[in-house]
Amino acid sequence: MAKSLMSLAKRHGTPLLIIDHKVIRQKYLQFRKYLPRVGVYYAIKANPLPEIIKTLHALKSGFDVASQEEFEMVMKAVPGSALKKKNDFVYNDIILANTIKPVETLKKMIPYRTLMTFDNIEELKKIKKYCPNAGLIIRLRVPNIGSMVELSSKFGIEPSDAMQLMDAAVGMGMDVEGISFHVGSQCVNIENYMTAFNAAAELLKAARAKVYNVRLVNIGGGFPADYEGADVSFPNFAKKLSKEIDRLFPQEIEIVAEPGRYLVAEAAKLVVKIIGKAYRDGKTYYYINDGVYNTLSGVIFDHCVYHFHSFKKGKTSVSAVVGPTCDALDSVSISENLPDLQIGDLLYVNDIGAYSNASATNFNGFSKAKIVHANN
Ligand SMILES: Cc1ncc(COP(=O)(O)O)c(C=O)c1O
């Protein structure tokens, strides 16, 4: 593996992000194997590259989009969507999963029957006015305890208030077709899912008692990637989820999920070059040609901790790895065990396919990493 990374870096230069589509396919198939009742809508926010959308579409994945731009990225990447089946494709294969949508976006959705989420009355009024043919999914606020990225402070209605909001939607002549939630990203605390499932099941039961037409439960994202050092056994985790899904939701209810990180995180490796070296505060600082404004932006936005590996062997010491920009925030790790390295040497990072290039910038004039695809 080290050899092939080095030769790719030699051929393409650095920083270089290598995306292995074989891993994406394996992850998708693993998800379907252990959660057989759960349809997949890949959350493209994790990594919106068209090549990834194409790979997942070929496996019959749907897509979770957050904006008009993401919606268009999917439509462009998936060839069949532009043909006469367009409306069916949008309804069946895309969920607009941002609870807040600009009026302009809602207007653009009118030609389709788009499924979209909401969690408050003002959004409901907006949807009714600007996109009345939308299919509605009500998003619940659920515990995000221990998740790497917390979402419940900004999204979801308290389960105790949800029926009133549903009543309002039905009163306005709109159909609430689904219930959704998100347990927070990289959720290893299975109790978050269990609590959310129970809240959704209770609301579903109450809604059906009123003969409301709820037919779908969207269990969101959060499924944990198996990062280096993370002790995640997806098969065990998913088997427990699957059992609870079967216990709580009648067979005729469609269950879907919006995994992002789980599908793509482990599919990418980043190779960077050391461009500077200094001795500061008792340790060696390696300045590399990628950083928190580039592919390693997940350090800031995703609260992700990345570790660096050297292609060289030797006695290691605690070192810092920092980015190339003129900003002290651009510090990737203050504690990595690395051998004595020189300017020009390469380092690599594993499991960097999610929330990485998606939030990279050109700050300070440093180019974004080149991306190469393998096995696509
Ligand atoms: C609405 C929604 N769905 C799905 C996802 C994907 O989550 P994850 O990458 O944890 O699977 C997110 C991520 O924040 C989200 O906001």
Strand count: 16
Radius of gyration: 22 Å
Low-confidence stretches: none
In the CATH scheme, what's the topology name of the largest domain?
TIM Barrel
Provide a count of the helices. Answer: 12
Instruction: State which percent range the strand residues make up.
Output: 15-25%
Describe the structure.
By secondary structure, the protein is α/β, with parallel strands linked by helices. It is 33% helix and 23% strand. It has two domains: 2-17 and 266-374, Lyase, Ornithine Decarboxylase, Chain A, domain 1; 21-263, Alanine racemase (TIM Barrel). The protein is built from twelve helices and 16 strands. Strand 7 (176-180), helix 9 and strand 8 (216-218) form a beta-alpha-beta unit. It is elongated and about 70 Å long.
Give a brief description:
With 376 residues, the protein is α/β, with parallel strands linked by helices. The protein has helices spanning 2-12, 21-34, 50-58, 68-77, 86-93, 103-108, 121-130, 159-171, 190-209, 234-248, 261-264, 298-301, and strands at residues 16-20, 38-43, 62-65, 94-96, 115-118, 135-139, 176-180, 216-218, 254-257, 268-280, 283-288, 309-310, 316-322, 331-339, 346-349, 370-374.
Topology, element by element:
Elements: H1 2-12, E1 16-20, H2 21-34, E2 38-43, H3 50-58, E3 62-65, H4 68-77, H5 86-93, E4 94-96, H6 103-108, E5 115-118, H7 121-130, E6 135-139, H8 159-171, E7 176-180, H9 190-209, E8 216-218, H10 234-248, E9 254-257, H11 261-264, E10 268-280, E11 283-288, H12 298-301, E12 309-310, E13 316-322, E14 331-339, E15 346-349, E16 370-374
Parallel strand pairs: 1-16, 2-3, 2-9, 3-4, 4-5, 5-6, 6-7, 7-8, 8-9, 11-13
Antiparallel strand pairs: 1-10, 10-11, 10-15, 12-15, 13-14
The chain binds pyridoxal-5'-phosphate.
